[in-house]
Amino acid sequence: MTSIRNTLILIPALVCSLGSSCLGQTIEEALKADSLSRYYSDNYQFSKSIECLETAVPIYEEHSCLARLADARYRLGDMYCMKGQYHLTLSNTVEALKIYEQEKDTLNILKCYNSLAQIYYICEELESSARYLELFGEGAVMLSDTSLIIKMLNNNAVLAGAKADTVMTDRYIRECLNLTRASGDEEVYVTVLMNLLPITLYVHNISDPLPASLYGSLEDSEGIVEKLDDINISGRYFSTMGLCHFMMGDSLKALEEYNKAVEYFSKGEFELYLYDCYMHLHYLYAALGDLSNAYSSLLNANRINSSMEQKNMYISLFKYENELMLSHQLELLAQKKNRQKIMMLSAILILLVLTILAIIYFYRRAIRMQAKEASLNNRNDIIKLKELQQSRMDSMTKEIISRLTRMSYDFNDEALRKEIASVCSDLREAGSTENWKEIDQFVPEFNSAFFVRLLKDFPDLSLNERRLCVLLNMNLTTKQIAEITKQTPHSIDIARSRLRNKLGITDRSVSIQTFLSKYNH
After folding, report:
1. Are 60 and 48 in contact (CB under 8 A)?
2. What pLDDT was estimated at residue 93?
3. Please, which of 36, 103, 148, 424 could form a disulfide with 14 given CB 3.0 to 4.6 Å?
4. HSE-CB of 102 using CA atoms within 13 angstroms
5. What is the residue extent of each domain of the chain?
6. DSSP assignment, residue 289?
């Protein structure tokens, strides 16, 4: 529980640090984004994980962190595949493969081959899938890596099933199962069963010996699934069992299993799996005459399909990008028009530089004018704020005095009446005293050289952030600032944290006061 609590505490800090990446793209920022991406990926929140990794990738590229860049690209490919965006899966996996080949990282090269074999299979490019699967299988045998060989046999069975080659499908399934049982890895065993059982149903009837045997083994593995406690594995288990009962003609049991699968898949981003479950549920409910649930299931399926857009479009994009990579059309076009591009780019670059210089000049001029205007208005803003606060305090004081006076009429004790009258007198005196003392302590700071220098480097600071900078530069404590601004200390702490991010202070050993002190001279 402690580690979970610490993780939950860390997440907001990582999110805040991601927000400040624009202040300076450092390796630390990329590592934080990468770490947060892994957290989201482990919890099957692929969109957020992709967003974090897309933040880290350009930083890794900028700093030439090839190993981390390749890993990030490879993981992006996997997650885009889960989101059904196959063209992005292809481009990221190919980029990762190039780096792994450059670094001669054999194991990761094989992982890329396997991913490419899968994505080509999904997009119905079976010849390309077979080619990459063959490369993957050769490497797996060369390394004598059992886990890789199991994947190779599993994928060969899937590919043979897609080609309706019953003999080869059965052969690969049996070899894969034997090796998986020998490995003793329960998670791999259950995963292989869930992968292979639907394939057998393409080439066999559910009552045939091989699919019946696989069904029995998977049914006996429910305890393993519960022990693994993984929403992906649990969802796939129940959807596979639902498919089996669907093929057996047991509609009620199939409904039960598919609804369990939906319950698990809904806890993460499993749109492809959910779409398949809802379509089966629609068919089953319609067959049973439950039109209300049939319609609801169809609506859910259409909602998912709309949010993901059309699968055919992504397959078309995949094929288009694949053709570009294979034919090198972009590279040939670049060679033919190289000189023309250089001249054009040079002209554009000169124009761009001149435009940027002009923008910078007028922007700085506008900032200086805004800073001058802000410095003149700050004192008036603060005075108005204090006047409003004082007005409220005066009203409250008058109301209290009025109530105390009315109460004194109800007492016969003269001493008590005098005491109440004394309290009322003290309240009147307190209300009429000078109330600008604390404001006078820091108002002059808004016209100081410190304030001008600070705004020059950070012109985007809001009015409240500027005020907070001035107060912190005077070494006032959080409690003192809270008293002056009439806010809670907790609110001031939150404001300080946001100010650190906006000022780009990433070193926790450096206080805001220390950072601001350099603007005093």
Report:
1. no
2. 93
3. 36
4. 10
5. 338-435, 437-521
6. T
Rounded alpha-carbon distances, angstroms, from residue 12 to 40, 374, 430, 503, 512: 13, 33, 44, 18, 20
DSSP track, 43-90: TT-HHHHHHHHHHHHHHHHHTT-HHHHHHHHHHHHHHHHHTT-HHHHH
Residue 395 has pLDDT above 90, yes or no: no
pLDDT for the residue numbered 111: 94
Residues 274, 266 contacting (CB under 8 angstroms): yes
Q: What is the pLDDT of residues 3-18, one digit of tens each?
A: 443 444 344 444 434 4
- Strand, helix or coil for residue 217: helix
Residue type, 339: R
Of residues 266, 267, 301, 306, the one with CA closest to residue 285:
301
Cβ(109)–Cβ(101) below 8 Å: yes
Share of the chain above pLDDT 90, in %: 44
pLDDT exceeds cutoff 50 at 80: yes
- pLDDT of the residue at 220: 93
CA torsion angle 250 251 252 253 (round to 10): 50
Distance, CA of 278 to CA of 259 (rounded, Å): 9
Please give the helix or strand (H or E) that residue 385 lies within, else none: helix 338-408
Query: In the numeric block, which tokens belong to residue 154?
Result: 């599993």
CB atoms inside a 10 Å sphere around CB 67: 13
281-305 burial: b if 16+ Cβ within 10 Å, else e: bbbbbeeeeeeebbeebbebbeebb
Q: What gap in Å lies between CA 388 and CA 393, rounded to an integer? A: 9
CA distance 53 to 168: 40
Interatomic CA distance for residues 504 and 130, integer angstroms: 51
Helix (H, G, I), strand (E, B) or coil at 129: helix
- Domain 437-521 fold is Arc Repressor Mutant, subunit A (1.10.10)
